[in-house]
Design a protein that fits this description.
alpha/beta; elongated; 5-stranded parallel beta sheet
Length: 523
């Protein structure tokens, strides 16, 4: 996770990505009582030198076969595994160690796993846990999911790959919550922007380029779709530059008229035009030894393009209504949601100005190209709006996570932020299921060409797309009879519920696959 925050000296830290299920072996069945914080962001050089902390998992199950299965699954992974066989042992272990994940059976010799989970949540409200349940107990486990359990696993385990994927996702959820808690500590100890949260390789590449360009006093062009965070990147460039102590001025060229932009940039003398009641300095003057961001520069008029080019060439400007040339030393950062080379080819942007501003190009990837960032961003916004509105919404249930990660997000990070804000406003407290996430983040796919749409998706999205279509079709053929749909699929009925949940299909609510026109009804 990249955490970048503005301070007197900017903080840049990158956490390890080998946090969930790694490669080196370490497995044990004893309870050593060691207190371990778990996977945390690397917020200091000493932590970075120590390397990533192994996730700690507590397995609570009295069945020897189940214990051996999990030991075999996790022993060749980079985790610390502790095992308890009773509620009493589990309580002791839980008090002694800070576990990233608890996997517990529903029925234990001296108690009930659901009651144990409730006790754990009283001690650590954000504790991530999975429930292992047998036949006839699925409804209780589903109720526990609604009360904060991350997910449930049904015995016997038919698909170890899917089992491992659930464990990995649970560890990712725990890591994200812990990193948000650490980030909150950083935010409360410093002031200002920006804060960047990222796990993705695409963003890491961008940040490497940005760090290289920041100290160089040259013009930067930031391209990216609306809502990707271009202004945040511009502020980061300013924070990491030698001009960090100077002013940062931002102007959106697409939001103002030509005359207002000209007045804002150049400033004006008293009486220069109607309404100019006093002499006012412009951004060229105020940003001396600082940075100016011209956002959506593709919308700048041809006249202003000529004026800007002259200022860049001469290093000076003239206020409106004056003849005095005033020097200005500012760094220019431009941002656009439309490729400037295409605007040049279309004759809407001057080629000579394009060559002046496109010295160091940076491209901010859209959210659909950095899906690893969706969950940590959603949890960060969830934490932010819970504190802002004094709410206790959350955690996100697996179907909500699947919906968030499967959405196209045409509005990018801005749209995700607003979707989470709406979810917090609607849900004052308790877990957030798929129905609590506004559908605006999940636009319908075209029903006319589902095959073509699937071909444009990444493998993970395509698999989810197929699962939604397949199970929705089965429910339609079975007239929403889950038992009949399970029989047609060849999947045991108790496991069929799990597959429906994995696909994001919530019984009794509209099917998550918008455009399918189906409804899954509780039998």
């Amino acid at each position: 996770m990249s955490i970048i925050a503005k301070a007197p000296r900017p903080i840049i830290r990158v956490s390890s990505k080998t946090n969930a299920v790694g490669n080196s072996a370490h497995c044990g069945t004893g309870l050593d009582g060691e207190r371990t914080r778990g996977q945390r962001p690397l917020l200091d050089p000493a932590a970075a030198a120590r390397g990533p902390v192994k996730p700690k998992i507590l397995l609570v199950d009295d069945d020897p076969f189940t214990r051996r299965l999990f030991e075999g699954l996790l022993c060749d992974r980079d985790v610390d595994l502790a095992i308890a066989t009773t509620v009493h042992e589990a309580r002791n272990a839980f008090h002694l160690g800070d576990f990233n994940l608890v996997i517990l059976d529903q029925r234990l010799p001296d108690g009930n796993g659901l009651e144990l989970f409730a006790q754990m949540r009283e001690i650590r409200p954000r504790q991530t846990a999975l429930m292992v349940t047998g036949h006839g107990q699925v409804r209780d486990a589903m109720r526990a999911v609604r009360e904060g359990l991350f997910d449930y696993l049904t015995k016997p385990f038919e698909n170890l790959e899917e089992l491992e994927a659930v464990i990995t996702k649970a560890l990712e959820m725990d890591r994200a919550y812990r990193e948000i808690a650490d980030l909150r500590e950083i935010v409360t100890s410093i002031s200002g922007d920006p804060i960047i949260i990222s796990h993705s390789a695409a963003m890491e590449r961008l940040l490497v380029q940005l760090r290289q360009a920041a100290p160089l006093d040259t013009t930067v062009l930031i391209e990216g779709e609306s809502g990707t965070g271009k202004e945040v990147m511009a502020k980061l460039l300013h924070s990491l530059s030698a001009r960090a102590r100077g002013p940062f001025k931002a102007l959106n060229c697409g939001a103002l008229s030509e005359s207002l932009i000209e007045a804002a940039l150049f400033g004006y003398e008293k009486g220069a035009f109607t309404g100019a009641v006093k002499t006012t300095a412009g951004y060229f003057e105020e940003a001396h030894n600082g940075t100016i961001l011209l956002d959506e520069i593709a919308d700048m008029s041809p006249k202003l393009q000529v004026s800007l080019l002259r200022v860049l060439q001469e290093g000076s400007f003239v206020r409106l209504g004056s003849t005095v040339h005033r020097p200005s030393n500012f760094r220019l950062i431009c941002a656009t949601n439309r490729p400037l080379d295409a605007e040049v080819a279309a004759g809407r942007f001057r080629s000579d100005l394009y060559y002046r501003v496109n010295v160091v190009p940076l491209r901010v990837p859209p959210l659909r190209e950095r899906r690893e960032d969706i969950l940590p961003l959603a949890l960060f916004f969830l934490d932010h709006f819970n504190r802002k509105f004094s709410r206790e919404a959350g955690p996100l249930q697996p179907d909500a996570v699947a919906a968030l990660e499967g959405a196209r997000w045409p509005g990018n990070v801005r749209e995700l932020k607003h979707a989470v804000e709406r979810a917090v406003v609607i849900n004052a407290g308790g877990p957030i299921a798929f129905g609590g996430i506004d559908a605006a983040g999940c636009p319908p796919s075209s029903p006319a060409s589902p095959a073509r749409a699937a071909q444009t998706l990444q493998y993970r999205e395509a698999r989810l797309h197929f699962q939604r279509s397949y199970f929705s079709h089965l429910l339609h053929l079975a007239d929403s009879d889950v038992s009949e749909a399970a029989r047609l699929s060849g999947i045991a009925r108790q496991n069929f519920y799990r597959y429906l949940k994995r696909a994001g299909i919530v019984l009794g609510k509209p099917d998550v696959q918008r455009g399918a026109g189906n409804q899954a009804i509780e039998p």
